[in-house]
Predict the structure.
Amino acid sequence: MSTKYLIAEQVLTKLAGGYPDIADSVQKPDLYKRIEQKVNAMFKMQQFSINLPSGETIPDNLAIGIYENVAVTQSGLVSKSTLPVMPISLPRNVGVFQIYSTDFPDNVFIPIVSGQRALLRTDALLSDMLGQVTYEVQGRTIKYHSDLTLMGINTVTMELVCMDISLYSITDPLPIPADFEEAIVMELYKECLPIQPETGISNQYTNVANQPK
């Protein structure tokens, strides 16, 4: 799992490989805030607040991360996706805040509580949910009640609830997919590379050669 500490370690290791003097001047605490900024920007983190009608309480200092291009795969007669990260566990599975087609963001899918689908099938009017896409949360798997691939939907966007990134300790697993870790490391590495100053020395031979005849 990615943590602020592990990402900072990788950045410092890469810096030390090419620029040991620069690596000495960059310390882990310098990188932790930069990591938070990168994660916030990558997943468009925004403050999360909601009031449930049943009066259930939601913790403070939560954020919504937007995870795009999550794959949809066929599974028998239906389809499924794997959550890119585990959201905060909240009442009514609100941690999985919204799911929708990457190409049609206004068409939000409808979450169904486990077992509710069987009850809806007995209702002639609601058995197909009026053509809407429904899904259940089963651990890290999102099970859709139809085959989205037959509709041309091969990726979805998920809005998942996590803690405010600044509240994660340096050893807490961050809410980022594993394949994004390298991108964050490389971006921080490039930002921390030294900028070579101008020497102020002119090359007389080049200057003479480039003069008009």
